């Protein structure tokens, strides 16, 4: 896991529930992310919950975009 990454854009990568779950684990480790863009992917309510819980542990996050993913 890259702990120095500050901006992540994974738009239109056909990320599914397994992918969102893996991202949730990584987001709990990297607290340097300021921007996460996950537009145009397919996320379930359960995966979204895990993702948001993980991102809430990051005090530096200022921008989250999930357009057309929910």
Tell me what the structure shows:
The protein is of the alpha/beta class and 70 residues long. Helix content is 34%, strand content 13%. The chain is built from two helices and three strands. It has helices at 17-29, 45-55; strands at residues 7-9, 35-37, 63-65. The protein has a three-stranded parallel sheet with strand order 1-2-3, with no helix packed on it. Strand 2, helix 2 (45-55) and strand 3 (63-65) form a beta-alpha-beta unit. The longest helix has 13 residues, at 17-29. It is globular, with a radius of gyration of 11 Å. The termini are far apart. The model has no long low-confidence stretch (mean pLDDT 91).
Key phrases:
alpha/beta, 70 residues, 34% helix, 13% strand
């Amino acid at each position: 896991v890259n702990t120095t990454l500050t901006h992540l854009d994974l738009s239109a990568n056909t990320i599914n529930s397994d992918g969102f779950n893996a991202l949730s684990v990584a987001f709990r480790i990297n607290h340097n992310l300021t921007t996460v863009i996950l537009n145009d992917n397919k996320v379930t309510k359960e995966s979204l919950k895990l993702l948001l819980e993980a991102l809430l542990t990051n005090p530096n996050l200022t921008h989250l975009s999930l357009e057309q993913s929910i």
